[in-house]
Amino acid sequence: MPELNFADRLLAAIAEKKTPLVVGLDPVYQQLPAAITQQRELNDAEDIESAIDAILEFSTRVLKVVAPHVAAVKINSAFFENYLWDGVQAYHDVVQEAAAHGLIVIGDVKRGDIGNTARYYAQGALADPDFLSLDELVGPDAITVNAYLGQDSMAPFLDVAREYGKGVFALVRTSNPAAAEVQDVLLTDGQPFYMHMGKLVEKWGAGLIGQRGYSALGAVVGATNPDQLAALRQALPSTLFLVPGLGSQGGTAKDAAKAFKSDGTGAIINASRSIIYAFKEEKYKDLAPANWEKTVELAVLETKRQIAEALGQ
Amino acid sequence: MPELNFADRLLAAIAEKKTPLVVGLDPVYQQLPAAITQQRELNDAEDIESAIDAILEFSTRVLKVVAPHVAAVKINSAFFENYLWDGVQAYHDVVQEAAAHGLIVIGDVKRGDIGNTARYYAQGALADPDFLSLDELVGPDAITVNAYLGQDSMAPFLDVAREYGKGVFALVRTSNPAAAEVQDVLLTDGQPFYMHMGKLVEKWGAGLIGQRGYSALGAVVGATNPDQLAALRQALPSTLFLVPGLGSQGGTAKDAAKAFKSDGTGAIINASRSIIYAFKEEKYKDLAPANWEKTVELAVLETKRQIAEALGQ
């Protein structure tokens, strides 16, 4: 049974938590607070069980801290897939945990393939599993995808989004330094390639627009290029932006503010390492590392404040 | 310890088996021969264990049939990820099984992310696992990646390729119908976008060239567009092409032949459904479904013959 359109659900959750901030979970065993890794008997990153156990505890504690303050979390699959099938199970454990907190869960999986194959990625990565042995399991509310293969590679994801009331964010302009050599090349009509991709996303998403005027197909646009963000915001009125790159990647709240319309809607802003590893930052050194959860909470509140200020709220 | 360059290994295996044909494993429970699904007690696609068990048996039997005849197999991760973590474990089981047959294994995973994240995908999807509990496990010999994020998203995969003697195939021009709207747009310098991407791949691969003059970084270029294949072959002298789209997707051996240089090197050609599901084809109806393995073998031999003929061998 189709639920409420994903974009409407996301906008309602943002309104409730009064922030478009999304916390990104990129857990790396070697980066975790000593309070978590030292209590493991094996204390050995080469031991999968020990490492996953630490990552699960860390993720669970971060989710508990951030759940009252933000609408959504983004869980980065790479940091779990590194641990092969056990890691994939842990990824799904974290998805369940986040969902149980009432958080909207974005699975950052960046899948994409030709239509016949994409159907199976959409089923595994986005749909709620339909297996007898897993009948309580939910998939994430949304995932990221790579749309380089075009419309027929996207269709299976959009079908699942429609059927389950879920969302999809397609890569348009990413936040990494080398993105420009691929995504910023100019086309004969004068527009950069990312703009072409953005307009395709806006077009593909037209069949999934909710009551608030936004589509369940959104776009990933980095915070590290505010001018491009502004141009895309102008050109893609129905597309919600997932904006990574805040904090550790160098984007500021002021940069990210370009992703929003004047009514304050239009985007969610992701910060990962600057929040989950806040205990490493100079300004929180009096609390860290023993009270690392407090530093996560303070970093969330501070980032929320910065975003609100940049949005003039 | 670095092994032989992947391109050299692949070329040697092609010479030994006298064919650039690669068999693609895209196993779908509902498509399997009745001989395999009917013997399952549950006979229920919604039961993960039963479905995976059937897919594993099918894959194992296909590998045994094709191993004497081809150099490499391509295992499509999507058809395993559909079954979540148990499916991922089955994917790795099939990788081990194929490697045990001496086949070169291409993991068709199409991963890609910003550098900080791509490191973990490269570790999980391409490197040989470095965990105490999995010390006998090997990763695939090569994987497919999506290079839309540019050079810094590729670097971690290339680092693993260098360290482990492995290979990477980046999507350049895919075989699906809608690829054109993204990949064929013209740039201001007159070249289509896929050519720009292809030249980037050739450039990124320059540091991984083996003794035979080909790089361990190859390109995925569909068989469904022979003119584009010819143009790319001309422009990218050091890049090996992985050419999907033969058979069920409509590409012919004659089309795929454009991927080769006059010396007969330069590409591998993948056929998936037209081989593994050959028992469904009219011409093999006297053997199918009971003798489905024989139809797989006949389809491999026939496809090899068609490719050899198209290459004038």
Structural class of the secondary structure composition of chain A? alpha/beta
Strand order of the largest sheet of chain A: 1-2-3-4-5-6-7-8
Number of helical regions of chain A: 13
Measured by DSSP, the beta-strand proportion of chain A falls in 5-15%
Kindly give the count of domains of chain A.
1
Largest Cβ-defined interface: A-B, 68 and 69 residues
Query: What is the correct CATH architecture of chain A?
Result: Alpha-Beta Barrel
Described by the principal axes of the CA atoms, the overall outline of chain A is globular
Tell me which oligomeric state these chains represent: homodimer
H/E element order of chain A: HEHHEHHEHEHEHHEHEHEHH
> What is the CATH domain class of chain A?
Alpha Beta
Give the averaged pLDDT of chain A, no decimals.
94
What would the keywords be for this entry?
homodimer, 313 residues, alpha/beta, TIM Barrel, eight-stranded parallel barrel, 13 helices, 43% helix
Model description:
The structure is a homodimer of 313-residue chains. Chain A is an alpha/beta fold. Chain A has a single domain, classed as TIM Barrel (Alpha-Beta Barrel). Helix content of chain A is 43%, strand content 13%. The first copy, chain A, is built from 13 helices and eight strands. An eight-stranded parallel beta barrel of chain A has the order 1-2-3-4-5-6-7-8, surrounded by eight helices. In chain A, strand 6, helix 10 and strand 7 form a beta-alpha-beta unit. In chain A, helix 3 runs parallel beside helix 5, helix 3 crosses helix 13 and helix 6 packs parallel to helix 7. Chains A and B meet through helix 4, helix 5, helix 6, helix 7 and helix 8 of A and helix 4, helix 5, strand 3, helix 6 and helix 7 of B.
